[in-house]
Amino acid sequence: MAQLWGGRFTKETDQLVYNFNASISFDQKFYEQDIRGSKAHVTMLAKQGILTMEEKDAIIKGLDSIWEDVKSGKLEITSEYEDIHSFVEANLTQRVGDAGKKLHTGRSRNDQVALDMKLYVRDEIDEIDEEVKKLLFALQKIMEENLYTYMPGFTHLQKAQPVTLAHHIGAYFEMFRRDRGRLADIRSRMNTCPLGAGALAGTTYPLDREYTAKLLGFDEATRNSMDSVSDRDYVIELLSALSTIMMHLSRFCEEIILWNSNEYRFVEIDDAYSTGSSIMPQKKNPDIAELVRGKTGRVYGALMSMLTTMKGIPLAYNKDMQEDKELTFDAIDTVKGCIALFTGMAATMQFRKDNMEASAKNGFTNATDAADYLVNHGVPFRDAHGIVGRLVLLCIEKGIALDDLSLEEYKEISPVFEEDIYDAISMKTCVEKRMTIGAPGPDVMKQVVELNRKYLEQ
Questions:
Q1: Residues 72, 156, 278, 406: which is the catalytic one?
Q2: pTM of whole model > 0.90?
């Protein structure tokens, strides 16, 4: 067993205890971050005169060779080592001799793992942000192509007022745009370097922590060594942001599942993102959308687990914190996979525009506009509301839309109606006269699409 702490102990650790304690099975993901941090650390040690330049060069050469061998598959990370730090240090010492034993000067595994986790999370935030941005490009394309695609807007899952597909998709654009803002906010707040905090109380070596922070792309060094090694706020914040992303994806998936049903027939999901039934030949199932919806609970679980793990931990570092890694790794992998698959599905969906517009008409989404017509002709709104309610009831009895009533039928209920009622309640008029910013009118939607384009080009 390759351990960094054997001197104090006279008895071998029980194998079951060792396995339970070890983290190599999952923290091996950190090998790149661990090596990056070690290179910055020895560069700083040499600058401060704690290591010679020859020792620094030998260590960095050795670290680079380990990185290359692991990446190429020539060197395997095995359970012989307790954690990734033990693996790197042991292999380094084999390659460069006694200089390798000086790698750990002025640092602890506590600040080392805190650094590795921050570097990893920071890298993953950048990758997740790129995936969300790709999704936003796909949504932007749908919006650009559907400024005049009329469909029902819903409240309480009931058809409410007519909107456009561009407007509907634009709501999700806003959600995912906010998600990118959350990721950027987390990245900015977490961008302080814990290396040099030691186990919890710093070190007596004359480290230049700000220099190390600069080498690793951090804004500054952390300001409290106890907090440095025990802070996992940024992990909780990330898991919260990932949960919100999954919530948005799940809401969108739920709508796609509904739109894909025989009752709606608003979308045709590409064959590449659907499956069939083993027994019913007519089925085309929205499996990807359902799986994304299902995996949302998995990411929520990671957030709740992390909050629960951290809630009773006294200062400073405790082994409980090792639980952060598997939870976070799984949540990150889940979210990246879900966004990528969802983006592909959204980009290849075909929209049944005729069914969307027919659904808007048959759902009486223009009823409010019929009431507004009466109000504009001097009828009090409360009376207009009652008149249109009677018209809707008549349409339901006849199985037709408001657009299909004859003028005589309109006048039987209210003589105020004239021939221009048909233009007033057309889908085109209902949508186009809603011209305040944020509304579905195509002219203001074009302004939003242009703002979105500029945002994506930043």
A1: 156
A2: yes
